[in-house]
Fold this protein.
Amino acid sequence: MSTLRLDHQAPQQRSFVAQVVGLAEWQGKRSVLLDRSAFYPESGGQLGDRGTLAGHPVQDVQIDEAGRVHHLLEVPLSIGAQVEGQIDWPRRRLHMALHTAQHLLSRALIEEGQAETVSARLGDRGCTVDLDCAQLEEARIARAEALVNQVIEDDLEVRAYFPTPEVLATLPLRRAPKVTQDIRVIEVPGFDVSPCGGTHVARTAEIGWLRVTGVEKDKGRVRINFDAGRRAKDGWVTEAAALSRLATRFTAGPLEVERAVERLARDLDAAKLQLRQLMPLVARAKAQELLAQPGPIVAMVEGDRELLRALAGLLTAGPNRVVVLGAPDQGNTSLLVARSEGLDFDCGAFLRALAGRVGGKGGGRPDRAEGKLETLDWIPGARALLPDP
Ligand SMILES: [Zn+2]
């Protein structure tokens, strides 16, 4: 026998009393069957309700083909017992907002983008609608979002009813029903009429907000990510707080952050350019200093790999030079080994031996090698491995 659906009769009902009529299983998990239930079972892209039954947490709610609502509970209840069910209302309230928002968004996307919804999913984190088109201009999506928010603002009634077949035949349904009998219709008068068995708010203003959070293109379809209700608001609050923290760092107001970032990016470009122009000068000055060392040049240099390469080029331009240069990099050392042309010294083999001795990795050709050592204190090890001058 199918379960009497209180969630259809009175979608605002948060608690109910029912009789346990059976114990069953849903995909290997224990479930409880009741004569009536206000718990919404997962279907049509909307997740099942949570809450408690006789004080025990309801893990999930599902419906089978016979129309029996399975309440997944870890504890069995006694058949014939009268039990009280409590719906996790904030969660359900959110799902009602999300589901109604999805109806409005699907209609608005037809109005503004001639795009039909082929499937919808209301998830624990975010929601999606998949459209029957491969492309949709951002401006049209923005207009659809604005249209939904206008309908929310207008606070229209959301009617849920089971029409007679005669009445049903006259309704301008947005999509064909998925069931053949007891077809339930959700109507926002003057805006959208759609068959649906889910839970919805009673008036559009209860949705609060609709927010398109992203657009993806996948397998020839456009997917719109959205949120509504409390979750849309929470998203804005979190982002506003992040913007506010940024503004504090820039000692500016939130609306001035964009300008401040643009200024910072310009300054950074200018600084990079200046650095590129100065690099040869720095390398030449440092090379002069290092060339004063007798024998192989072993040194730690404050700078990056670019500077090491520029320096190595200058230092090995003359004959009979072996250079081992390191630059500190977060507690490690970026290392470069190079030599003058024609010299009988294998840079790659030297680097491998040094890495084996002090820890690290790297390698290269006989005339040039690069690697990373896991220490800043590698100079004594390097000197020990180098031939006597
Ligand atoms: Zn619906």
Q: What stands out?
A: The domain at 280-385 is CATH 3.10.310.40 (Diaminopimelate Epimerase; Chain A, domain 1). The two ends are 96 Å apart (CA to CA).
